[in-house]
Amino acid sequence: MSQRRAGARALLRFILAEQRPLAVPSTSLQTSSSVARRLGCHRPKVSAHLPQSQALTPQCHGKSPESPRATPRDVVIDRYYIPKICLREVQMGDFIRYHYNGTFKDGKKFDSSYDRGATVAGVVGVGRLITGMDRGLQGMCVNERRHLIVPPHLGYGSIGVAGLIPPDATLYFDVVMLDIWNKNDKLQITTLSKPERCNRTVENSDFVRYHYNGTLLDGTPFDSSYSKDSTYDTYVGTGWLIKGMDQGLLGMCAGEKRSIIIPPFLAYGEKGYGTVIPPQASLVFSVLLVDFHNPKDGIFLEHLEVPESCKRRAVIGDFVRYHYNGTLMDGTLFDSSYSRNHTYNTYIGKGYIIPGMDQGLQGVCMGERRRVIIPPHLAYGENGTGNKIPGSAVLIFDVHIIDFHNPADPVEIETVYRPEGCNVTTRARDFIRYHYNCSLLDGTKLFSSHDYEKPQEVTLGANKVIEGLNTGLLNMCAGEKRVLIIPPHLGHGESGARGVPGSAVLRFEVELISMEEGVPEGYLFIWHGDPPASLYEQMDLNKDGEIPADEFSTFIKTQVAEGKGRLMPSSDPEKVIADMFRNQDRNQDGKITSEELKLKSDEDQEKIHEEL
């Protein structure tokens, strides 16, 4: 038993590293077909791509190859499987990794790398392998499979290996090539796809996020970020990666795909890594760069569309309403205001939103479209947020500014047309008729008086319209046209109104059609001079000691007709008079007595109701 172990160790030394170079005959390398013909054997035609299980063996008639005359003078090579793609063939001086089974002619196994659970690694053509193996491995492709017949003088000769290989033994090897590299190799980079737009590429000290599939040169997978459902995130050029990957990522664009073939001395070298990467293994990485940034990066702005007229730009403290699409650098959508059919509304520069967006919205114009690219340290950092924004993700926001304002903004008034000879203008309490078109600042139409049969009517200062519109209608002439920009705190506020979004800035186009002088607040009727001294007696037209509604109405209309007083302007004077009568008829019995009738000036102290 000990003799067999000693023999096995001796064989390994011969095959792997330590055998003395044997004499190499001058005869050229022969293929299996030529040797088979010389031996009187016939080999049917075999496809080079047949798998091992379907490989055909030569049918020999005559003397056995073990007989002295049948023993080949050179290595017999049967390339029974050749891969369709062969990027490289083994040459003298190449470092290789391969598996093999070694048997005698009768099929008895004398050695196997598979049994040891480890591939064989070595250099070809420098005398570290038996001569027959040195010759038989040359020209092989990765994943190629060969049957080698090594005659004794190219194997272990007349001595053999004690207890393992007898003298003058012909050796049969079944070999599969797994890896080929050379100390002069460099990184092999193949660009598989690249985005049309590439404003920036990876440099040393950048932080990258990428997906990868890692395989050995023979296609055996050893790792994949996809299986972990997470990108691999790291700095480039700072020693956190193997040297080959550090170099292979340089110059990549976000969204680019590369194949990176790394020789062992730029990967895990002689030690390998764990049980998945053997020693001296070339590595193949298929890489998709998801995004990258530098810790020194600020935000990056792209002005996609800027209105020709930009009278004002947003500053810190402004309240902005905008739509946006938020994506990762690979185009993955993580959020959109459009999907909610509602703008995002916020103050800028006050810390209510991520710092990068706080900066990116400053300086925008009404209606501008802008792209804001935000590095993670100005967004959600290393932890990300939710299940849609991963840690260390660069964010891209495509923003459309709907409007913005400042809480201190007044109504903005632009006079479009003002008639000549404009001497009389509107004041508080005046009754006016006007036309208007109301829209949002992005042009969305909300309301228009032209959709109705007549102009809008209102008493200014009577709290019947929003404060900003009331202000914008003051000091107008009949026929004048204005454009009013009304901030939400003078419009419909944060809550909005039916058809009006919350915190919306409104744009009104107004035209004053007519105006009537009004009466002071709290009055329905005012006298142009002093009221009659015996008001009740004059109002009691039939002198019966009481004033019903018809007498009251007749008396008021007469005063207006004679120019002695005027009613509060209204589209319905009868209603105003009826309101006056109801206020004076205190017990609501349908008539006014002398005790009930009072002037407004007499009632001011009582603060009971609005009247004469």
Automatic annotation (TrEMBL):
EF-hand domain residues are 535-562, 572-607
Task: Classify the source by domain of life.
Answer: Eukaryota
Which SUPFAM superfamilies does the record match to this protein?
EF-hand, FKBP-like
Q: Which residues form the PPIase FKBP-type domain?
A: 93-181, 205-293, 317-405, 429-516
Q: Does the keyword Repeat apply?
A: yes
TM region positions: none
Renumbered residue ranges of the record's region Disordered: 47-71, 581-612
This enzyme catalyses: [protein]-peptidylproline (omega=180) = [protein]-peptidylproline (omega=0)
Assigned keywords, A-Z: Calcium, Endoplasmic reticulum, Glycoprotein, Isomerase, Metal-binding, Repeat, Rotamase, Signal
The molecule here is called peptidylprolyl isomerase
This protein's species is Buteo japonicus
